[in-house]
Amino acid sequence: MAADRAPLEQPRPKAVRTILYMIGGFFLHLAQFILIVTGIAVGIGTVVIWVGIPILIATTSIVRGSGNLERRFVRGMLDTPLPPVERAPVEGGLVRRWRYRMVDPTTWRDLGYVLVTFPLSVLEGPIGIASIVLLPIAIWVAPWIGWLHGSMALALLGPNRAKRLEIKAQHLQASRARGVDAAEAERRRIERDLHDGAQQRLVSVAMSLGRAKNKLDKDPEAVRALIDEAHLDAKLAVSELRDLARGIYPAVLGDRGLDAALSAQAAKSPIHVDVAVDVEPRPPAAVETIAYFIVGETLTNVAKHSGATEAGVKVWRTEDKVVVEITDNGHGGAEVRPGGGLAGLADRAATIDGVITVVSPDGGPTIIRADLPCAW
């Protein structure tokens, strides 16, 4: 399950579903190809005697129906984020609606996909059958073929450029709104911690010093006790302010980077945590900070709720993003719920258009992955 996945990105599909798609798709695409090509040929050939017009109308409906079916099929089997196509309603008679369909670019894109995908299925079908017998093809070859097919389907059956830009704008707007909410929640937390912690300590220091000032000439022993009390409160206030500052931006992260900061977090965890970090060149400070807090909050949740005995943290950098992956051997069942801890992680990542993905089947293991772009 992904939280706020970036729009219209083709993930790598699962091997088993890809193989089923390759085998089943051959027969489906064969039937679509025969029906549509035959309908077009017969319809054009008989249009001079009017018989071809209802044939072409029916063929157009088959094309559009095939496109809708393929969107659902590819979305379900190849994990391609193909949204259902939005077709404007048309009033009028049958011929009027057909004329509209003929000038609708989506109809021609559906037709292009059907015509292109059949010869591809002729190649994919035997590979799918071979994948049942040959394990290396099933593991390494089939998923990449499925990824390529899904990318082609996304290009032909997905939204046009204007719609893609609209979806991206909506995604960015939602990310920014969530980022503002996360920043506001953080501001309230800092204000609450200051009010309930350091501020109360400093008020106590001022009161103790005021009482000591009043008794300075009358009771030196009481003054000594009040100064000791104020001294203790001052040290506690300094400690609380230091903890608060560390919660905003830890000094070790700024001085020594993610490797040292995450290792320090792992050392404080009550369960064993393996840490592997490779983020050279060093990412921007905002990315480091978000990665640090995602790991910290996740490890806290793992220790409290998962029942795990060990966990692992891997952080690596690609060309344009930092990937954070936290795994544990707990009982699983974690999911992103509104107002929950994982939703908070997703909101924090959304401030830089990052994406949180949670895979946590019942019985475990749990994998929480954050993809954090280094440019936004």
Name a few traits of the molecule.
disordered N terminus; elongated; 376 residues; single chain; alpha+beta
Give the topology, please.
Elements: E1 2-3, H1 15-45, H2 52-78, H3 94-103, H4 105-133, H5 135-157, H6 161-214, H7 220-248, H8 251-256, H9 258-268, E2 272-278, H10 285-306, E3 310-317, E4 321-328, H11 341-350, E5 355-359, E6 366-373
Parallel strand pairs: 2-3
Antiparallel strand pairs: 1-5, 3-4, 4-6, 5-6
Helix pairs in contact: 1-2, 1-4, 1-5, 2-4, 2-5, 4-5, 6-7, 6-11, 9-10, 10-11
Describe it.
It is a single chain. The protein is an alpha+beta fold and 376 residues long. It contains eleven helices and six strands. It has helices at 15-45, 52-78, 94-103, 105-133, 135-157, 161-214, 220-248, 251-256, 258-268, 285-306, 341-350, and strands at residues 2-3, 272-278, 310-317, 321-328, 355-359, 366-373. Strands 1-5-6-4-3-2 form a six-stranded mixed beta sheet, with helices on one face. Strand 3 and strand 4 form a beta hairpin. Helix 1 crosses helix 5 and helix 6 (161-214) packs antiparallel against helix 7 (220-248). The longest helix has 54 residues, at 161-214. It is elongated, with a radius of gyration of 31 Å.
